[in-house]
Design a protein that fits this description.
Elements (H helix, E strand, L loop, with lengths): L6 E10 L10 E5 L2 E10 L2 E6 L4 E6 L6 E6 L5 E6 L3 E6 L5 E6 L5 E6 L5 E6 L4 E5 L4 E6 L6 E6 L5 E6 L4 E5 L4 E6 L8 E5 L4 E5 L4 E9 L10 H4 L13 H10 L6 E10 L8 E4 L5 E5 L4 E7 L2 H22 L12 H4 E8 L4 E8 L4 E8 L3 E8 L7 E7 L10 E4 L5 E5 L3 E6 L5 E6 L3 E6 L5 E6 L3 E6 L4 E7 L5 E6 L5 E6 L3 E11 L6 E12 L4 E6 L5 E6 L4 E5 L5 E5 L6 E6 L5 E6 L3 E6 L5 E6 L5 E6 L5 E6 L3 E6 L4 E7 L5 E6 L5 E6 L4 E11 L1 H12 L1
Antiparallel strand pairs: 1-56, 2-3, 3-4, 4-5, 6-7, 7-8, 8-9, 10-11, 11-12, 12-13, 14-15, 15-16, 16-17, 18-19, 19-20, 20-21, 22-23, 23-24, 24-25, 26-27, 27-28, 28-29, 30-31, 31-32, 32-33, 34-35, 35-36, 36-37, 38-39, 39-40, 40-41, 42-43, 43-44, 44-45, 46-47, 47-48, 48-49, 50-51, 51-52, 52-53, ...
C-alpha cells in the first residue's frame, strides 16, 4: 500500500462583518430587565442581540447550518422563538443563550411565528402552506391546520376567544376554531396576496395589507355559538372537516356560513379602508403590544405610523362632535342632530407621521415606552439597524433617529479581501468603504471611504493598502491615519486585478481597457510635511487584444500570467514582455487563477465551472476538474504547498490537491454566492466574503483529514 498524503482539516472559526440579515424580522427583546434597548436580529444561521444604546453585540444565539427565516419573542420577554429555512423552530432562553426546545414539523421555511398572550402556545406558518399550533410547556405539537394553498404570511391568536386568524399569499384570510381545529370562516375580499394583518381596538377590528396601497379594515362582531339540540349531528358538522383534510373552496364555505348563521362565531364586515402613501405592496404590517399604534411599510424606505384611538378617546371625540352639532342645530333651528354624528374611520385611525429611513426597510418593531415615547427599530436592506424615537406629546410628532448600528459591516457586498503579511489584519472592501479588521478579535479597527472596489493588496510593511476600483482608479490609503493619500487614474475601464511583485518593489494591474500596467513604489516629497511619503509610479505597459480579467506573477518573477476575455490565459516573460505560452481550453472566461509557490503549476478557475491545472514549463493541461455548480469566482494556492482553495457562486468553498487532482474538503457555511477569499501568508486562515453580507473566517486545525472517511460521510449524508 502506497503512502497516503495527510491533509489537515479547516474548521469554521467565526462569522463577522454582518450587522443583520434582511431575511427575517427584527424584534425588541427584554434583557437585563430593560425593554426597548435590546433588539434581536437574524444573522445568517445565528441570531444576534444588539444593545442599541452602545452599538454592541451582547448575545449570539447560535444556530446550526440553516438560515434564520423568522423571529418572535415570548410575551414574558424571557424566550425567543426562531424559525429556520428547513422548517425547524428552536426556542432560546435569553438569559442563558441556550436553545431549550426544538420543534420539527414543517417541510419548508418557517414564514410566520406568534405566541398566544400567555406564552403557553406557539403557532407557526410555513412555505409548505401549513399552520401548526405547538404546546411550549409540554414541548409538543398540538395540531396541524391545512387549508391555505400558498405561503403563510401572518398568524394571530385572539386573546379572549380560542380562535386563530391566518393569512397567506393565496389571497385568503382564514379563521380557525381551535376547540374543533377547523376553519369556520374564509375572507375572500382580496384580489391579490395578503402580506400582513393586525388586530386592533381590543380585537374588534382586523386590518389587512395586500398588494395595493389600501389597508382594508374589517369590523368584527363575536357571536355566542348557539346550538340547536334537535339538529342532527351530520348537519352540524357540515362545512367542518378533520385538520388534515380542510379542502373546501372559499365559495362553498361562504355559502355554508350564510345558510347556517347559528354556526358562526365571528361576524366580519368590511368597515372601510385606510390609504397608504406607498404605491407598492405591504411588506410588513404590525402594531405595538398595546395595540395603540399601527405601522406599515412597502418596498421603499418610508415607515407609515398610525395612531389607533381607544374606546374612551372615541367617546370623547364623539361628545365634542355632538356639542358642535347641537350648536349648529340651534343656529339653524333643526332637531335631533344625534343620528348623523359618528366618527369616520380616518378619525379613529389617524396618521401620525412618516419615518424616512436611510435605505429600504425590510422589517420593523414598535414599543411604547413608559415615558410615552414610541420607539421604532428598523432593519434595513443594507446591513444596518436604525432606532427612532417619536415624541407623542409634541404638537407635530417628528421621528428622531437616536442610534444607528453600522460599524460591524459593509453596506454592500464585499468584492475583495486581503491578509496582511503578519497574518493579523484583514482588509475587506465593498462599493462604499474599505475596512480593516483585527483577525483575533474580529473588531473593525479602520473604516475608510472608497469608490467601488474590485481588487486590493497590502503594501509591504502593512502600513498602507492599495484598492483598485470599478472606475479605473488606484487608491492608496494610509492605515495609521485612515486617510486617502493618493488617487491615480490607472485604467480607462475597471481595474479587475492587482498582483504584488515577488521582489515587493512594485505591482501589476489588469483592466477592462485591454492593458496590463506595471507600477513601482517610490518615496516622494510631501508638500505638507518634511517626511517623504509613499507613492506609485507607472513604469511599463503591455497592450493586449482583449479585456484583462486577472494577472499573476510567477514566484521567481520571470513570468506573468494574464487571463483574457477570449477564455484564454496568456503567459509573458516579465523582462521583455514577449509572449511565452497560451493556455486555452476553457469554454468561458477565466475569472481567477494562481501560480503555486515553486512556479511549476498554474491553476485557472472559469465561469464554465471548471478548474484546470496546467504545467508552467510547457503549458500542458494536467487535469480539468468540475469544481462548482456555478462560476468559479476565486482561486488561491495554500502557501508552501500544492493545495488550493476555490470559491464558487454555488455558495461553497472547496479545497483541492493539484498533484493528485483530488477534492479534499468542502467548507459549507455561506448561504449565497461567495465572491472572494483570501489565505493568510502562513496558510492557517481562510477568510471569505459572500452575497449574504457575511465574512467568514476558517481556521486550519491539527486534526488530520482522511479522504475515504470524508467521502463516506458525504455518501451517508446524501441518503
Amino acid at each position: 500500500m502506497g503512502l497516503t498524503r495527510q491533509y489537515l482539516r479547516y474548521e469554521p472559526a467565526a462569522l463577522f462583518g454582518l450587522v443583520a440579515s434582511a431575511r427575517a424580522g427584527v424584534a425588541f427583546v427584554a434583557l437585563r430587565g430593560e425593554r426597548g434597548r435590546y433588539v434581536a436580529v437574524p444573522a445568517c444561521e445565528h441570531v444576534f442581540v444588539w444593545d442599541t444604546r452602545k452599538g454592541e453585540k451582547v448575545l449570539i444565539l447560535k444556530g446550526l447550518k440553516q438560515e434564520v427565516s423568522c423571529l418572535c419573542p415570548s410575551p414574558d420577554g424571557l424566550h425567543l422563538a426562531v424559525g429556520y429555512e428547513d422548517g425547524a423552530i428552536r426556542v432560546f432562553n435569553l438569559l442563558s443563550g441556550e436553545s431549550t426546545i426544538t420543534f420539527n414539523g414543517h417541510r419548508a421555511a418557517v414564514t410566520a411565528l406568534q405566541y398566544d398572550h400567555l406564552g403557553g402556545r406557539l403557532v407557526s406558518g410555513s412555505k409548505d402552506t401549513e399552520v401548526i399550533v405547538w404546546d411550549v410547556i409540554n414541548e409538543s405539537g398540538l395540531y396541524r391546520l391545512k387549508g391555505h394553498k400558498d405561503v403563510i404570511t401572518q398568524v394571530l391568536f385572539l386573546k379572549e376567544k380560542n380562535l386563530l386568524v391566518t393569512c397567506a399569499k393565496d389571497t385568503l384570510v382564514k379563521w380557525w376554531d381551535l376547540d374543533t381545529q377547523h376553519c369556520f370562516k374564509t375572507l375572500v375580499g382580496h384580489r391579490a396576496e395578503v402580506w400582513g394583518m393586525a388586530l386592533l381596538s381590543t380585537e374588534k377590528r382586523l386590518i389587512t395589507g395586500s398588494a395595493d396601497s389600501e389597508l382594508r379594515v374589517w369590523d368584527l362582531t363575536y357571536i355566542q355559538e348557539v346550538k340547536d339540540p334537535d339538529e342532527p349531528e351530520s348537519k352540524k358538522s357540515k362545512g367542518s372537516s378533520s385538520p388534515g383534510a380542510e379542502e373546501n373552496t372559499e365559495e362553498d364555505e361562504t355559502l355554508e356560513l350564510d345558510e347556517h348563521p347559528e354556526e358562526r362565531i365571528v361576524k366580519c364586515s368590511k368597515g372601510g379602508s385606510i390609504m397608504r402613501e406607498g404605491r407598492d405592496r405591504v411588506v410588513t404590517l404590525g402594531t405595538d403590544r398595546m395595540g395603540k399604534f399601527l405601522a406599515c411599510h412597502g418596498t421603499d424606505a418610508v415607515l407609515e405610523v398610525f395612531s389607533v384611538l381607544s374606546e374612551e378617546e372615541i367617546q370623547k371625540k364623539l361628545e365634542k362632535k355632538m356639542k358642535k352639532a347641537r350648536k349648529k342645530a340651534k343656529q339653524n333651528s333643526e332637531e335631533e342632530p344625534e343620528k348623523s354624528v359618528e366618527l369616520s374611520l380616518q378619525e379613529q385611525i389617524q396618521r401620525v407621521t412618516n419615518v424616512k429611513a436611510s435605505s429600504k426597510i425590510k422589517s420593523f418593531d414598535l414599543i411604547l415606552s413608559p415615558k410615552g415615547e414610541l420607539k421604532m427599530v428598523l432593519l434595513l436592506q443594507n446591513n444596518v439597524i436604525e432606532l427612532y424615537n417619536l415624541d407623542l406629546s409634541a404638537q407635530v410628532p417628528q421621528a428622531v433617529r437616536v442610534s444607528r448600528i453600522t460599524i460591524g459591516g459593509h453596506r454592500s457586498d464585499v468584492r475583495t479581501l486581503a491578509f496582511s503579511s503578519d497574518n493579523i489584519a484583514i482588509l475587506s472592501a465593498a462599493a462604499e468603504s474599505v475596512k480593516i479588521w483585527n483577525r483575533s478579535t474580529l473588531q473593525c479597527i479602520r473604516t475608510m471611504e472608497c469608490e467601488y472596489a474590485l481588487c486590493s493588496l497590502f503594501v509591504p510593511g502593512d502600513r498602507q493598502v492599495i484598492v483598485g476600483t470599478k472606475t479605473g482608479k488606484l487608491q492608496l490609503y494610509d492605515l495609521a491615519s485612515g486617510s486617502l493619500i493618493e488617487t491615480l487614474d490607472a485604467h480607462d475601464g475597471a481595474v479587475w486585478s492587482i498582483a504584488l511583485s515577488p521582489d515587493q518593489h512594485g505591482f501589476v494591474t489588469g483592466g477592462a481597457d485591454k492593458c496590463v500596467k506595471f507600477w513601482e513604489f517610490e518615496l516622494v516629497k510631501d508638500e505638507s510635511s518634511v517626511q517623504k511619503r509613499l507613492s506609485m509610479k507607472h513604469v511599463r505597459i503591455l497592450q493586449l487584444d482583449e479585456d484583462v480579467l486577472c494577472v499573476r506573477y510567477s514566484p521567481n518573477q520571470k513570468l506573468l500570467a494574464v487571463s483574457l476575455l477570449d477564455c484564454t490565459v496568456k503567459v509573458f516573460y516579465v523582462d521583455t514582455l514577449k509572449f511565452f505560452l497560451s493556455l486555452y481550453g476553457h469554454k468561458l472566461p477565466v475569472l481567477c487563477m494562481d501560480i503555486c509557490y515553486d512556479g511549476t503549476l498554474i491553476a485557472t478557475g472559469s465561469a464554465d465551472r471548471n478548474v484546470k491545472i496546467w504545467g508552467l514549463d510547457f503549458g500542458d493541461c494536467h487535469r480539468s476538474l468540475f469544481a462548482h455548480d456555478d462560476s468559479v469566482m476565486y482561486l488561491q494556492f495554500v502557501p508552501k504547498s500544492h493545495l488550493f482553495f476555490t470559491a464558487g457562486k454555488d455558495s461553497k468553498i472547496k479545497q483541492w490537491d493539484a498533484d493528485k487532482f483530488e477534492h479534499v474538503q468542502t467548507l459549507e457555511g455561506h448561504h449565497q454566492e461567495v465572491w472572494c477569499l483570501a489565505l493568510s501568508p502562513n496558510g492557517d486562515y481562510v477568510v471569505s466574503a459572500s452575497h449574504d453580507k457575511s465574512l467568514r473566517l476558517w481556521e486550519r486545525t491539527r486534526e488530520p483529514l482522511i479522504l475515504e472517511e470524508e467521502r463516506e460521510m458525504v455518501r451517508v449524508a446524501s441518503f
